[in-house]
Design a protein that fits this description.
- By secondary structure, this protein is of the alpha/beta class.
- The protein has 22 helices and 24 strands.
- The strands form 6 sheets. Strands 12, 13, 14, 15, 16, 17, 18, 19, 20, 21 and 24 form an 11-stranded mixed sheet that branches. Strands 6-5-2-8-9 form a 5-stranded mixed sheet. A two-stranded parallel sheet has the order 1-7.
- The radius of gyration is 30 Å and the shape is globular.
Length: about 750
């Protein structure tokens, strides 16, 4: 069995949800539209019998006149597979948002030429590319610069079935006769070696409730303008909007059973008037006046993934009714057929029959993982947790908080492009941890900790944080490092005497998201004030422009000095040092796989939410760790992930992992799974690597029996002969150096 929950970017799951619902809507809209009037009457009669939703529903009409979307082959020259819909929204969990940058870019349509230049191309790419291009606008940050597309770009234009093309032509008002279609195909062939015109999404119809749950979506390409186009539209939006409303009631995208709203408001004056008589046939009351502008209530957010999927066939909950396995209650299926298919997979160790008792044991940890001291614990650990609404209600919509959700940093939010820009701008490592209200981090306590912290409650009490503060969601990374240093290494590797070391070199391997939050590691200076720390972030997911760069932070700020050089180096210090020496924190970056890293051996290796089986580079990085034989601790978001990591470690090195234990400094936010009900939390469990015993000379096999006792230390007083040999050896070494 394989689950991707806890690893995959939430936005990609969200985009897959939009895309899947939109495809189903297009297919069913075409079926109803080509049927007799009786089919519509049956559908309307079915909607009239639906229960009423007390929440207000909103039909948003969002025109787009100035931005086109260009789908490219990628920045690298030469032939390639491109970024098709299967790669974008398929089953490959390693795909991250940054992977989209080389392929999707925005271009300006202000001149009005691009939107009309290649109308046939846009119509034929139709519904499927519309789902693809929806992804990039949500990526956040600055739009990518327009880039010329390679000749192989034509591969990205998804080849749709003929039936889909007919639906697109019949329903969008873009239908052409066969001759026109053939001429359009010939035109596209001739232009395959030239730069293609950008796609233009002319209008977005969106149905939500007043809380922000998305219930339906329709993407309009050029040719259907209506009142939105302010003039020369050839077709009104009303039929499209009415079909969208009906489908959103019968098959709501978000969550919940089919239902109809008690009241509906529309974001376009002309469309409001045209829909008045239509929605009355459904038993829905239309607001007296249209929504003048898209001005939702405070706290309105587009909620995270709500719809779930069958583990086998991946159908969404808006298509079929999903029920969990009756034995383990962990995995979701659409019916008996998919359950039986999963039970009898081959080989046996990937079947649900093999995993079911293990998953049942994982489910029993749900209550333990949800036992946290925060005032908001019940909300954030529930299966229906709406993360965007939680963050927005607390004003956490800028800075580092945008890394936790689908929120987009807006203009003027001051989010730094690089992590160290924070130091260069203000010298305050916590500037981008704040919300819109008062500061979330209190001043640093004057006295260092008197004891070791083993829980969020103890740490919050000493740090002066209220249990209503959500800072634990960000501080889970430095506090996990602290817990490994102060508790786990002394327990598992007492011979290292790590608590008495005055300096530690730590490698953070296969780093990704935690590097985007790198400034939170400043808290280690507060927790371990007398230890000089060096954190080296290593991984091929790191920004290439950050490679070989470094900066230094000290506990006392905020005087700042910048030293020029090949890399970026910033120092945050007070200019005065206390007696006894407050230590500093060195941050270094190596944008490469860990097995290609060169340099001195670290004291400790740490990885966050590792997912060994989800990235091929682990098959090389784990043997490298085996050769270094340094203490290596990793976190996982579920026990299932820990079991998979143990299997990958055995395959890669012949070693294994320790029994996972719950991390007291795990994130309190529950991660919503798509095809299962297991409890997933960032940094939920911790384990360390158990290396394969050192091989002897007997055919490459490990030496049998217990490890030999340590050798007896030699006599510190060397014999005269030994002294003469040592002197000769030192002399030969000196000559070689000269």
């Amino acid at each position: 069995m394989e689950f991707v929950s806890g690893y995959r970017d939430e936005f990609l799951d969200f985009a897959a949800l939009l895309f899947g619902w939109f495809r189903k809507f297009v297919a069913e809209r075409g079926t109803v539209g080509n049927s007799h009037e009786g089919r519509w009457r049956q559908l309307e009669a079915q909607i009239r019998r639906l229960p009423q939703d007390p929440a207000l529903w909103v039909l948003h009409v969002l025109p787009n006149r100035s931005v086109g979307i260009s789908l490219g082959q990628g920045a690298d020259p030469g032939p390639g597979a491109g970024l098709g819909a299967a790669r974008l929204l398929g089953d490959e969990p390693p795909l991250h948002l940054r992977d989209l940058s080389p392929y999707v870019s925005f271009v300006s349509l202000e001149d009005g030429e691009e939107g009309e230049e290649d109308e046939e191309d846009e119509e034929e790419t139709g519904e499927e590319n519309a789902g693809t291009k929806k992804v990039k606008p949500q990526e956040g940050g600055e739009p990518a610069a327009p880039s010329k597309e390679s000749p192989q770009k034509a591969k990205l234009r998804t080849k749709e079935p003929e039936a889909s093309k007919k639906k697109a032509g019949g329903e969008d008002g873009c239908g052409e006769d066969r001759g026109e279609a053939e001429r359009g195909a010939e035109k596209r062939k001739e232009r395959r070696t030239a730069e293609a015109a950008p796609l233009h999404l002319s209008c977005l119809l969106l149905v939500t409730d007043e809380h922000g749950t998305i219930l339906g979506i329709d993407l309009l390409m050029n040719g259907v303008q209506g009142s939105v186009g302010q003039g020369s539209g050839t077709e009104t939006l009303a039929p499209r909007a009415y079909a969208l409303l009906c489908h959103s009631m019968i098959c709501p995208m978000g969550s919940g059973d089919p239902r109809k709203p008690r009241q509906l408001t529309v974001g376009d004056a002309q469309l409001h008037g045209e829909l008045e008589n239509l929605v009355r046939r459904l038993g829905v009351k239309l607001a007296k006046s249209p929504m003048r502008a898209w001005g939702p209530r405070p706290g309105f957010t587009f909620a995270s993934l709500r719809a779930r999927t069958c583990h086998v066939c991946h159908k969404h909950s808006f298509e079929v009714k999903l029920t969990p396995c009756p034995q383990c209650s962990a995995v979701l299926y659409c019916g008996e057929a998919c359950l039986q298919t999963d039970l009898h997979r081959c080989p046996d160790d990937v079947s649900h029959r093999f995993w079911c008792p293990r998953l049942a044991a994982f489910m029993e940890r749900s209550g333990e993982l949800a036992t946290l001291p925060f005032t908001y614990t019940k909300e954030v650990t529930s299966e229906t947790f709406n993360k965007e609404a939680f963050l927005a209600s607390r004003g956490l919509t800028r800075g580092y908080w945008t890394q936790l959700s689908m929120l987009i940093p807006g203009p003027g939010t001051g989010t730094p492009r690089h992590p160290w820009d924070n130091l260069l701008l203000s010298g305050d490592p916590y500037q981008f941890l704040q919300g819109d209200g008062s500061a979330l981090m209190p001043p640093v306590p004057l006295d260092p900790p008197r004891s070791l912290f083993g829980s969020w409650q103890d740490y919050y009490l000493w740090r002066g944080l209220s249990l209503d503060s959500p800072m634990a969601v960000l501080l889970t990374y430095p506090l996990t490092v602290y817990y490994v240093i102060t508790h786990l290494v002394p327990q598992s590797f007492p011979e290292l005497n790590i608590q008495n070391k005055q300096s530690l070199k730590i490698h953070v391997v296969e780093a990704g998201k935690e590097f985007d939050l790198v400034m939170v590691f400043w808290e280690l200076l507060v927790l371990l004030p007398h230890v000089a720390l060096e954190l080296q972030f290593v991984g091929d997911n790191l920004p290439p422009e950050s490679d070989q760069q470094h900066f230094t932070m000290q506990r006392d700020g905020p005087e700042l000095s910048v030293r020029p050089g090949s890399g970026v180096s910033a120092r945050l210090s007070s200019g005065t040092k206390e007696k006894g020496g407050r230590r500093d924190l060195q941050i270094r970056v190596s944008a490469r796989p860990y097995h290609l890293l060169q340099g001195p051996k670290p004291d400790l290796v740490i990885g966050f939410n590792s997912g060994f089986g989800l990235k091929d580079t682990w098959l090389s990085s784990l043997p490298r760790l085996q050769s270094l034989r340094v203490p290596a601790f990793f976190t996982e978001s579920s026990e299932y992930g820990c079991v998979m990591d143990d299997q990958t470690m055995a395959v890669a090195t012949g070693g294994g992992t320790s029994s996972p234990q719950p991390n007291p400094f795990r994130s309190p936010f529950r991660l919503r799974a798509a095809d299962n009900c297991m409890p997933w939390y960032c940094n939920a469990f911790i384990f360390h690597l158990i290396y394969k015993p050192v091989q002897g000379n007997n055919g490459g096999r490990p030496a049998p029996g217990p490890a030999p006792p340590p050798p007896t230390p030699p006599d510190p007083t060397p014999t005269p002969a030994r002294r003469r040999r040592a002197e000769k050896k030192a002399a030969r070494g000196a000559r070689r150096r000269r």
